[in-house]
Amino acid sequence: MTGDGRAFGTFGFRFAAADELPLCELFAVGHERETQTAYDWDGLARTDGPLLLFQYTIEGCGELAVEERLHRLMPGQAFLVEIPGRHRYRLPEDSPAWEFIYILLRPRMALSLWTGVKDRIGEAPFLPQGSGPIRALRDLIWDAGSGRIADPFSASSHTYRFLMELTRFARAKGLSDSLWPPAVKEAVHYMDRHYGRMIGQEQLASDLGLSRYHFLRMFSRYVGMTPGEYVSKVRVEKSIELLRHTDWSLERIAAAVGYSSGSYFIKVFRRLTGQTPAVFRSGKQLPYTRFFFD
After folding, report:
1. How far, in Å, CA of 274 to CA of 163, rounded?
2. Domain residue spans of the chain
């Protein structure tokens, strides 16, 4: 343990679990600081595969070569590779140290999620240290070092949480709202208050001091959906409250949440919830208090 609370170590797991159980197989996790150029791994020379490796730079610098592609791995940057594979990662000669955290897992239950993540964010993505995947990995390493991962079920639970956080990050290509830029926070706050009488996206972007293109690109990156999709989500959430707690007509509810016609409101509501407003109000299906949308 270092003075700032960082625990270093490598923790391996070899649990005997029935093959028919749908468990994520954790192979190893660790937090290391390398200072010698002898730290040099060739993906085709390893014999412990098949494995999937996610490694995240905390401090210093590392280097990854994948076929003909070369990545200089800076703080905040991860890499994802398959073992065995045509890659090489190492501490380069001009870097005095490379501190990183990592997870190795078997691909049996994880490969489809892993492939989807790489398709979206690439083999060497940047992830803020406060992002979900990094928090999950740090928690996993801490519990491993504390001896709390003692069976294949707890190992699978931790691994699956990491994979879900990584998948969520990749699909949204964004962060929790605490890490959004001020302009995105301001835009979301405006939409939450003015969903019933929204101004156009170009006007909103201008009010934020951004071009429409830059605003749309930044909003989608951090929120994980377009401004139009976000407004639709808010409007349907508000309409659910009105359906449950008032006897207003669908036309009146549609107007209250910002739709020009009842028919269009019904179309959007059904697309997001899987049922019409009338069916929702009737209680013939589950009496939801609130819907959560992606």
Report:
1. 28
2. 9-172, 180-282
